[in-house]
Amino acid sequence: MKVLVTGSNGLLGQYLIQRLSALPGYEVVATGRGPNRLKMQDGYVYESVNLGDEAGVKGLVERHRPDAIIHAGAMTQADDCERNKDACWMANVTATRYLLQGAERTGSFFLFLSTDFVFDGLGGPYREDDPVNPVNYYGASKAAAERIVKQAKVPWAIARTVLVYGLADDPRRSNIITWVKNNLEQKKKLKVVNDQWRTPTFVQDLAEGCRLIIDKRAQGVFHLSGKDMLTPYDMAVQVAHYLNLDTRLFEKVDATSFKQPAKRPAKTGFIIEKAEKELGYSPHSFEEGLKAILGEGPAPKENGA
Ligand SMILES: NC(=O)C1=CN([C@@H]2O[C@H](COP(=O)(O)OP(=O)(O)OC[C@H]3O[C@@H](n4cnc5c(N)ncnc54)[C@H](OP(=O)(O)O)[C@@H]3O)[C@@H](O)[C@H]2O)C=CC1
Ligand SMILES: Cc1cn([C@H]2C[C@H](O)[C@@H](COP(=O)(O)OP(=O)(O)O[C@H]3O[C@@H](C)C(=O)[C@@H](O)[C@H]3O)O2)c(=O)[nH]c1=O
Fold first, then answer.
1. Is residue 19 pLDDT above 60, yes or no?
2. Residue 232 lies in a domain
3. Cis peptide leading into 125, omega within 30 of 0?
């Protein structure tokens, strides 16, 4: 199976490229903005394409004619999206339309990565068919892209996920693990929110969930997250304990003490029963995810392949 992965310099994209290109029967085309930042450079093809470049995006799809497209590329910083709405719409909505138009010409299966931020955070944890009601522009852009994907003339799936954590080569954004580790190691104090709830997602589990979707050509919306409902404060304390770092540097705060341009939903998190039953998705606990990332060697559990 030939798979085109967008956002291949991002956290999920890097895991997908490494995972899929190591599997027999997969041919992988990676695309990102600018040079390839993944250290592992062999076993797949990399093409630099800006997602806002209509001819570039459609040309890429038509040149490679993939069996499946995993569209992970996006403007993911919610505050940047709030400050620069045009760029956010271009990267998250218009680019999705370009890619989908390419997919419709080549008959490629289309998997779109979406977010818990399509929900308002008043009723979490959420199921796939709960009504969306985004509270910030990033979430609104993803909800708009989902509507476009749902009208596709090719088989499609939407994988929504929540607060993804892991390690990437030359990353452009932090996640709960890198953020806690880097700051506490430098003895910096951190204000950590204790009134938002999430089901954080180990990037390896998310990559595996995406593989299961394209392998099975499973259609529809799937919630792919971890299963533990935690606040960022709970997560930060677990990371610090795991690394034997000083939790006294944390200040437990509520979300109102942050002056961020983008409002965050209070309680999201996902019910993942559909993915467990229909895909065989089986994520690690947060503790297992930490061990897999920070500890000794490979994760203790794989979903097979
Ligand atoms: N991380 C999370 O907590 C969550 C992520 N998601 C979704 O999952 C997907 C993957 O997220 P993740 O890997 O963590 O995000 P990252 O921000 O790590 O990766 C997104 C990638 O998209 C690339 N990109 C952005 N704009 C463009 C553009 N105009 N042209 C080409 N490439 C572009 C970025 O490039 P560059 O590296 O150069 O900036 C980046 O490499 C996204 O769709 C995201 O919305 C959903 C919920 C939670
Ligand atoms: C920066 C910061 C964050 N936090 C908390 C708030 C938040 O719940 C969590 C992560 O904050 P961030 O600003 O990194 O991310 P945020 O934009 O809140 O997270 C989102 O990313 C996008 C891409 C998604 O789609 C969502 O699923 C979600 O994971 O950490 C603190 O407690 N203190 C801080 O100083």
1. yes
2. no
3. yes
Read off the pTM.
Answer: 0.96
**Mutation pick for ligand 1 pocket among 4, 5, 8, 12 (CB with most ligand atoms within 8 Å):** 12
Task: Give me ligand 2 centre to Cα 205, in Å.
Answer: 19
Structural domain includes residue 39: yes
Residues 6+ apart with CB under 8 A from 71: 6, 7, 96, 99, 110, 111, 112, 113
pLDDT tens-digit map of 141-161: 999 999 999 999 999 999 999
Q: Which of 13, 22, 1 is nearest to 164 (CA)?
A: 13
Q: How many domains does the chain have?
A: 1
Parent domain of 210: 2-166+200-227+268-284
57 in any annotated domain: yes
Measured by CA distance, the residue closest to atom 40 of ligand 1 is 10
Ligand 1 centroid to Cα of residue 216, in Å, is 24
Rounded Cα gap, residues 20 and 141, in angstroms:
28
Q: What is the CATH number of the domain that holds 108?
A: 3.40.50.720
pLDDT in tens, 242-270: 999 999 999 999 999 888 999 999 999 99
Out of 46, 76, 118, mutate this one to test ligand 1's pocket (max ligand atoms within 8 Å of CB): namely 76
Please tell me the distance between residue 68's alpha carbon and the centre of ligand 1 in angstroms: 19
